[in-house]
Design goal:
two-stranded antiparallel ribbon
């Protein structure tokens, strides 16, 4: 028997309600009965004075294999020289493209975390980028997904630390301009070092291009009174010229 419109609407409403109940319900306790910390809210990059224990370790350069490292150093030097000339090389922002993972975690824009029992969403203010971290699911294989800006992330709470495994980042997304292979794997460990300071320890593994795993840690400060704004790359005035330099279209007043 074909369902009536009213029945279909009721079923759809029930499905949506079930999804929201799972998403918005408090995160489940772990095997020891401990409830994880609640990370829901707005956050921004945190940089305290030197010596402050809430500062993460200094950022390390990518441990690329020798040939790739040499190429990376040449590109970095060219970018620095272009910046000094006032002719910055065009980037993804020039083309209205999002940062992707893990670059979006480096700031400088604020982001919002929405934490639930079945998943945790992180939405960055710039371009409304949203990554989704699923709980209680096994990680998929690369054959099961298409490479994307944010990849496929699954997470689990290990005590007070959220451990996130991400695969499937497309080649275009380069953290600190370092190349990577399709097999790159990103492991993040989120934990509160104080009630209002969150660390994200990011470890990138990619034996094809890295000599060893590469770990970078970012710190964020809770923003209790801040609401994420809408940020859409609309009527973008930036463009790349024939030499790949980022330019700005200036409209003359009529």
């Amino acid at each position: 028997m074909r369902a009536t419109k009213a029945t279909r609407r009721a079923l759809a409403g029930a499905a949506i309600a079930a999804f929201l109940t799972g998403m918005l319900a408090p995160a489940a306790a772990d095997a020891q009965g401990r409830s994880p910390p609640d990370l829901t809210g707005s956050w921004e990059r945190h940089r305290a004075p030197p010596g402050d224990p809430t500062n993460p370790p200094p950022e390390a350069s990518p441990p690329l294999k020798p040939a790739l490292l040499a190429e990376w150093q040449v590109r970095r030097a060219a970018a620095q020289a272009a910046d000094a000339r006032g002719e910055p090389i065009a980037t993804g922002y020039t083309h209205c493209l999002p940062d992707g993972v893990p670059s979006m975690m480096s700031g400088p824009f604020p982001f919002e975390i929405l934490q639930g029992a079945t998943q945790l969403n992180i939405t960055q203010e710039a371009y409304n980028q949203t990554r989704r971290i699923y709980f209680g699911r096994p990680q998929v294989t690369l054959d099961d997904i298409e490479l994307g800006f944010y990849g496929h992330s699954v997470g689990e709470w290990q005590g007070d630390t959220l451990v996130v495994d991400t695969i499937g980042i497309k080649d275009y997304i380069r953290f600190r301009d370092a190349p990577h292979s399709p097999d790159m794997r990103i492991t993040e460990r989120f934990r509160l070092v104080t009630p209002d300071v969150l660390w994200d320890e990011i470890t990138i593994e990619d034996p094809e291009v890295l000599e060893k795993p590469w770990t970078v840690t970012f710190a964020y400060r809770r923003m209790p009174d801040y609401s994420i704004l809408e940020y859409v790359c609309e009527d973008n005035r930036e463009y790349a010229d024939e030499n790949g330099i980022g330019r700005l279209r200036v409209t003359k007043p009529e």
